[in-house]
Amino acid sequence: MQRFCLRLSMVIMVLTLSMAGTPVHAYNLPSVNLGVTSFLDGGPPAGPGLYISQYVQRWTSDYFADGNGKRAFPDFADEDLEAWISLTQFIYQSDQAVLAGGKWGLNVIVPYVSLDASYAVPGFPEDNGAGLGDLTVGPLLQWDPVMGANGPRFMHRVELSLILPTGKYSSTKELNPGSNFFSFNPYWAGTLFITPKWTVSTRIHYLWNAKNGNPNHRLAADDSQAGQAVHLNFATAYQVLPMLRLGISGYYLKQLSDDKVDGNKQPGTKEQALGIGPGLLLHISKDAHLFFNAYFESQAENRPEGERFQLRFVYHF
């Protein structure tokens, strides 16, 4: 019994020291588009009109990285994170040009997130269960495709995305469906047709975050602010059949500035992640399209590193 108590005391001491060395202000960036979109991202698949997209994504991780990309927690933590993410998206694309030939549109995304973080021993970052995530609203401009002799050559779009703090949040939890702060997340997306069958696409975002007036309780602070970041998606696909494209897609996230707590910079809090993997696009009809993407992450810093699998169904009315 004495030996057991001594061993338990040592575990608690190591756990306390490990958590003290782990910045609780890490994992502060909001949920953003990391590989959510991929092939033919520069334009809607069937022209102007109303689109509804349904996304289902599963993300798993058993590796929480620190600022140097090393394992953040000791081996006995045996961390395991599973997230199920549902995104319901509504896009209206008009046929009315308003600026430099760009046609106005509106994008609305309603997320629902289920988080489950488990450990062999208690005391590590806790999840806040399932609930609504942060609503995204974005006015956009879509340009008509640049046409060539054999079809479209290039298409692109800009959007001023606003991430609104509508999601479930608790200051006593480290992993939340919502962020509890406003973010500005504009992007430019484009698709180049190298040949009529071979395409490359990208979407490049800038991310600015407002202050969180109710930060994690462990900070014992009045406010916190996640740093600025850039993140981008990239994809290439080849049309192997009239209704099927196969390809590779990925994403990269790089935080540019440190997080702040009560206005003070917190060195070593910048997040980073790279994900890449195979995917496909199935054209069920001219109005119905099914995407599948798998991503295997690496080079993570100050965030979990794992695997993402996603299905996306798009329908044009």
UniProtKB/TrEMBL annotation:
<keyword id="KW-0732">Signal</keyword>
<dbReference type="InterPro" id="IPR025737">
    <property type="entry name" value="FApF"/>
</dbReference>
<dbReference type="Pfam" id="PF13557">
    <property type="entry name" value="Phenol_MetA_deg"/>
</dbReference>
<feature type="signal peptide">
    <location>
        <begin position="1"/>
        <end position="26"/>
    </location>
</feature>
<protein>
    <submittedName>
        <fullName>Transporter</fullName>
    </submittedName>
</protein>
